[in-house]
Design brief:
single chain, about 675 residues, alpha+beta, two-stranded antiparallel ribbon
């Protein structure tokens, strides 16, 4: 026994040492190979080259995962933080605006990454709330003026500003714009819609009681009668602290929600069919409903019916809008099932971008690409619905948006104007405030409230100007990015430091966490800031990302003679890659390909701008100064090219987002 024990102990020690050695080696291997993947994080600093259009002097942005944050100058003279999804940002700048982009990847520790990411997210959401305050205050002032006019004159006459601001979302699906009634001749379709609404009303009464709709209407009217202007919070003069801006349910929002609810109940009571321009018919052989699609639509109809009935008894403030959307979609699905062809609700927003034939005819080939992409997407969603024999409301929203886009683009085949963009996930067709019940407020109280709102709005705008006033040098898209970065790095220290101490601490933290410090005071120019980031921060990778034309040009040159291709594509006359877009000021030569000839090309472009300006001087009476303005822009954009600075790149308004699918979009 003793011999066995003496034998086992050395063996045990050897095994333990062996296991320890293997464990240490495994741990070291895990440390070197796995630790960077677990603890290392990175963000991207982006520089977009200069071009005609917004941010013409160049643009910068910062990317965390799939979210890109960037500051933009507003017409109000303020600068504001925006957030865009990665693919959307690249499509907008590299493709539609045809601007090369440069990227530097900065490696940081996980806690630094979270600090930066959370600071940009917090600032974006806080600004969303602050600018919503400003918008709501403007709406409240407009609404109170509307009520004052009505109290004094006994009727209302909205001016153009009020008509565009005071609107009932969703009500336009069933009611025409006040003062401009649409003729709605009775038809089998409208009769069937009225019958469907009457059937739904009976189901509502069976569930909630025969007097439910009457009680709901009386409650909405009572709420309107007792409405009073909102008590706005005191505007905090310090927008940089950690307190998030309060949420305000404004006076106009409350009235709009109540009046929308009343019109939803009115539409049910009158069994009101959809407006003719609210329903999209697809009576084409290719859009016949198959047996499997019919089963999917029946399931969706049942879900929409349930959503409609539940929305009527909802406590959410905008339940009236939810009722209108559910009812409109129910009627569209019902029409689809009855006719055997797909019907959709018009889901374009209030201010879509319209294009006329003279704007898009030279781009008909690209319009066909857009049309084909929409048709393919629509067919794919139909096939998925047929395979599952089910459609959720979310899936219906996607199909509805694609169908709206497809049938809008189809108008180009008849050389008609069409809406280029503006589809929404939910139909939002609105009308200006119609005649209806209003809050029971005396003119004296309204005047007092208007005066108080004037003071609050003035105070808020002053605070916004103080914090977000745009300046070409001291407060632009570059300086605000670095200011936000430094605010994030100081976050763990609170707000106890004075300005000088904070600046010193920001430098120290930036060197520690990012590898170096970039002073925005000396790096306010976009391309200069990009070089500084590359030189100062802990950059692990830098990449140059081509614009759409740059990528297409490389593909052509790989197949054809490079010199002949370069010559042919150097100007808008012989180019096959670019067709003149009226949104671009007139130019002759692209100056991004040839640095040495850039001043000469810039001279030709400047001359073209002068020529367009002269023509615009004489064409002013019939083009409202469009050519004159475009020519002046062309001169301004071409002058930098005389000193080797590239500006004229052209833009591609009608590209399809599917053309982005195979391009390089770094994560």
């Amino acid at each position: 026994m003793a011999l066995n024990c003496q034998f086992e102990r050395p063996v045990t020690r050897i095994m333990l040492r062996l296991c320890f050695a293997i464990g240490v080696r495994a741990a070291l291997t895990a440390f070197f190979f796995l630790a960077p993947a677990v603890s290392a994080n990175s963000f991207n600093y982006l520089y977009v080259e200069a071009s005609e259009g917004n941010s013409s002097g160049g643009h910068t942005a910062i990317q965390f995962d799939d979210d890109i944050y960037h500051f933009q100058h507003l017409d109000s003279g303020l600068i504001r933080l925006f957030r865009r999804e990665k693919a959307d940002f690249h499509f907008h700048y590299r493709y539609l605006q045809n601007r090369p982009m440069h990227l530097s990847r900065v490696e940081v520790e996980e806690d630094t990454f979270e600090l930066l990411k959370n600071q940009f997210k917090w600032k974006f959401l806080a600004q969303e709330r602050q600018f919503k305050w400003l918008d709501d205050l403007h709406k409240d002032r407009t609404f109170i003026r509307y009520l004052l006019q009505k109290s004094k004159a006994g009727h209302t006459l909205l001016d153009a500003d009020a008509t565009s601001i005071l609107r009932l979302k969703g009500v336009g699906l069933f009611y025409p714009e006040p003062g401009r009634p649409l003729r709605q001749p009775a038809s089998e379709l409208t009769k069937r819609q009225s019958q469907s609404i009457q059937s739904l009303r009976k189901k509502v009464e069976q569930r909630y009681g025969a007097d439910f709709l009457h009680r709901r209407r009386a409650r909405a009217e009572a709420q309107i009668n007792t409405l009073a202007p909102s008590q706005w919070p005191v505007i905090d003069p310090d927008f940089t602290d950690d307190s998030f801006p309060a949420s305000v349910y404004s006076f106009t929002e409350r009235y709009t929600d109540c009046l929308t609810a009343l019109y939803a109940l009115k539409a049910i009571d009158e069994a009101r069919p959809l407006q003719p321009d609210a329903l999209l018919s697809t009576k084409r052989q290719a859009f016949r409903i198959s047996a499997a699609e019919r089963r999917a639509l029946k399931t969706l109809r049942r879900d929409l019916e349930t959503g409609f009935i539940e929305a009527l008894d909802s406590n959410r403030p905008d339940w009236g809008y939810a009722v209108l959307v559910n009812l409109a979609r129910y009627l569209a699905v019902e029409a689809s099932l009855l006719s055997g062809y797909w019907f959709f609700v018009d889901d374009f927003g209030e201010n879509p971008e319209w294009v006329k034939p003279d704007q898009y005819l030279r781009h008909k080939g690209q319009i066909r690409v857009l049309l084909n992409d929409a048709q393919v997407a629509l067919n794919r969603h139909r096939q998925l619905a047929a395979a599952r024999e089910r459609l959720t409301e979310t899936e219906w929203s996607q199909i509805e948006m694609i169908a709206n886009r497809y049938f809008e683009l189809l108008k180009s085949e008849q050389q008609r104007g069409f809406r280029m963009s503006g589809e929404n996930a939910l139909p939002s067709k609105s009308i200006a405030f119609p005649e209806g019940p209003t809050p029971n407020l005396t003119p004296e109280r309204l005047t007092t409230a208007l005066s108080a709102l004037d003071n609050v709005e003035r105070s808020l705008f002053q605070k916004l100007q103080q914090e977000y006033r745009y300046d070409l040098i001291t407060r632009n898209c570059v300086t605000e990015l670095f200011r936000t970065i430094h605010q994030a790095l100081l976050k763990p220290y609170g707000n106890s430091h004075n300005r000088l101490a904070s600046d010193t601490l920001a430098v120290k933290e930036s060197v520690k966490r990012l590898g170096g410090y970039v002073d925005s005071a000396y790096n306010f120019i976009p391309f200069v800031s990009y070089r500084s980031v590359r030189d100062q921060y802990r950059v692990t990778q830098s990449r140059d990302l081509d614009s759409y034309r740059g990528m297409a040009l490389k593909q052509i040159m790989s197949r054809q003679n490079r010199m002949l291709t370069a010559l042919k594509e150097s100007n808008i006359v012989s180019s096959r890659l670019y067709q003149y877009n009226p949104d671009d000021a007139l130019f002759v030569f692209f100056t991004d390909d040839n640095v040495f000839l850039r001043p000469l090309f810039g001279l030709f472009n400047t001359t073209a701008g002068i020529g367009q300006s002269l023509y615009g001087f004489f064409s002013w009476p019939w083009d409202s100064g469009k050519n004159l303005q475009s020519g002046a822009t062309g001169i301004l954009m071409s002058l930098p090219e005389l000193v080797f600075f590239n500006m004229r790149k052209g833009s591609y308004k009608y590209l399809s987002v599917n053309q982005l699918a195979n391009s390089d979009i770094p994560g």
